[in-house]
Amino acid sequence: MLRAPEMKLNVLHRTTYRYADFVTQNLNEVRLKPSCSDGQSCEDFELTIKPLTKVTSFLDFYFNYFQSFEVLPPHKELIIESRATVRTAPGETVTSIPVPMSRLPDCLRLEQCYDFVQSSTLVALSPEVWRLALDATGGQTDVWQCALAIMGFIHSGFQYEPNSTTVSTPMTEVLQQRRGVCQDFAHVMLGMCRALKIPARYVSGYIYNGRTEQLIGAQASHAWCEIYLPDAGWRALDPTNNQSADDRYIKVAVGRDYLDTAPVKGHYRGTARREMLVEVEVSEVSEMTPLTPSPVSM
Question: Cβ contacts of residue 282 below 8 Å, gap of 6+?
C-alpha cells in the first residue's frame, strides 16, 4: 500500500488507578511525551493529573523526556492522562548498507552502544541464548540480515498471548514459555542480538492501526527494538509484527529494557489493594476523530 511522505497522528493515553482506601504520598514519574528525533516531531503535548498537582520535567540518562509529580493529600483515585500530536515519517531503508559482523567490535568503543551490548535487569545473556541466536541466524555474516533472521525467528516461534506475563517477567522465562506480548518479544530480541554483540536497545511507544490494517499491539503501549549499524546508526525492528518500524510507529523512550522506559511508575503510602485501567487511542488527524475522553471503567 502506498503511503504519504509523512503522517500526523493524535495519541491519547490515560492511566486510572482506583484504591480500596485513601492513599497518600503518591510519587510518580512518567515517560509519555513522544520524542523529537529520526524524522519524528512532537507538535503538541499535554499532561493532566487528577488530583491536580505540580509536574516537573527532565531529561533522563538516555535523553528521554520524563516528568515527575507527587500527590500528598489523601485520595482514592489517580488519573494520569497525556495527549499528543505527532508528525512521523517513514524510516530510511538499510537493505543497501551491508555491514559485516566483523565490524561489531568497533561498536564496543562507542559511548552510545556500550550499555546496549550488556545484560540488564530483564535481559540476560548466557551461552544458551548465544547458541539460540547462532541457530536462528543460520551462518549469516551481515549484521542487518542477522537481525532480520532473529526477528523472524521470534515472530514465527512465539505466541502472542495477552496476560501471560507481567511487566517484570524476565526474558529467560519468556524463552521457556514461548509466549508473551510485545515487550517480551522485544526483550528476547534484545538478548539474542546482544549475545552476538549486536548493539540493541528497547523502544517504547505506540503504533497506529489504520482502517484496513491489523497490527498486533495497537490497542496499548507498544514496544520494539533498535539495532545499531556502523555508518547507518540506529534502525528499528518490531518482532511482534515482523517488520521494520515505519511512519505508523510513534517513539517515546529508549533504554536497556522496559524498566528504563516504563510509561508510568511510582509508589505511594496506603493500601495495596488497587485497580488499574490503561486506555490508549491512536488516530490519524486526517480521520477527523477528535481526542475526546472516553468513559473510565474497571
Answer: 9, 10, 11, 12, 206, 207, 208, 209, 218, 250
Q: Which domain holds residue 185?
A: 101-260
Count of alpha carbons within 13 angstroms of residue 134, beta-carbon side = 6
In a domain? residue 163: yes
Q: Which residue has the cell 542480538?
A: 193
Tens digit of each residue's pLDDT (9 = 90 or more) over 175-229: 999 999 999 999 999 999 999 999 999 999 999 987 656 677 666 799 999 999 9
Residues 117 and 218 reside in one and the same domain: yes
Residue range 178-193, pLDDT digits in tens:
999 999 999 999 999 9
Please report which residue ranges of 77-231 form alpha helices under DSSP H. Answer: 104-107, 111-114, 127-137, 143-157, 171-177, 182-195
- Residue 96 domain flag: no
State how many domains the chain has. 2
The number of residues making up the chain comes to: 298
Q: How far apart are alpha carbons 255 and 248 in whole angstroms?
A: 21
Q: How many CB atoms lie within 10 A of CB 121?
A: 13
Question: What was the pLDDT predicted at 294?
Answer: 40
